[in-house]
Amino acid sequence: MSAASHSVIDPVELTRDLIRIPSVTPADEGAMDVLERALTGLGFTCRRMVFEGPSGVGHDARIENLYARRGTASPNLCFAGHTDVVPIGDLKAWSAGPFEGETRDGVLYGRGAVDMKGGVAAWVAAVSRVLAQGEIEGSLSFLITGDEEGPALHGTKRVVQTLAAEGEVIDACVVGEPSSAHHLGDMIKVGRRGSLNTWITVHGKQGHVAYPDRAANPAPVIARLLARLDAHVLDEGYPEFPPSNLEITTIDVGNPATNIIPAEAKARLNIRFNPTHTGDGLIDWLNREAGALQAETGLRIELEHMCSGEAFLTEPGVFVTAVQDAVEVTLGRRPEASTTGGTSDARFIRALCPVLELGLVGQTMHQVDERVPEADLRALSDAYERVIATVLERLKP
Length: 397
Prior knowledge:
four-stranded antiparallel beta sheet; elongated; 9 helices; Aminopeptidase; six-stranded mixed beta sheet; Alpha-Beta Plaits; alpha+beta
């Protein structure tokens, strides 16, 4: 199939088609089928990668993923994104159906409009326009998951592991997360802090509050441990990153009575950390602190940890500059290179290649009445088209 025979795709209509599929994590409901049809029509070889296993939330999951590539030459520029969305929340609070894709006053409403079916559609549309102009020098690929909004155990993480084991080479990757802060193109994300979750259980001995000598109260012990951890200054920051922060997210003794010393006290915390630390290093520190208090008090303290991603930074260079130049030429503003925000699947892709995030304004993501101006979808697609051309040119061997 020649490049000229490909039809040009409308980013608004493709976004609407994707919104109309209720692909709430981990359900796919046909979202990958819509995307695969569009990419196959553009000459991509599509590979569905389905992974199953524990979901981390009490039941097994079956996750649909897609890796599609067009071309075999270098450089291979990849776009990564996800077709799954978060739950809608209160349906009655929506002014438009969350899965209807309604447009009002030039604004498209629906779950996933911003995060991130709109970004996926904008890149597909940009690719269709690039290919309509002729064959490219290099390759284009897509890495799309249905597990970004969930535990992220069987999505991009496993796709990346599989591609790496097979020797697939990706030279650079743009993730279509809604990176823009206030105006389209005002920010790209070139790094993210790592994230560590820890569950703490202090085991005591239940008893009557009037006879504390016959019991062992875990509540004061967990309070002391949390106070120590909370008072500790992890660092003063890192170049391009704010200071790491530890946040206590739950404290619970599950005690319905007023006259019982509880048998257990539990807490959970999350640490968002910059490259001063590694997940393993922070786990060692937490274990040491718990062990020291256990020795002091004689109560057993158990910790469980889950590091969902290490901190990373894509250093300034040809790739980052190429994207900034392309956005500035297209949208009239040069995006700030930022490391703010939560985690994304970029934390897995960094194992394959340099990666950054460029997408829509994220002000309504995960909210009721999530929405995007249709003009922003078209403008983002314009910017993506220039990004593709600029990156492929500057990364040529």
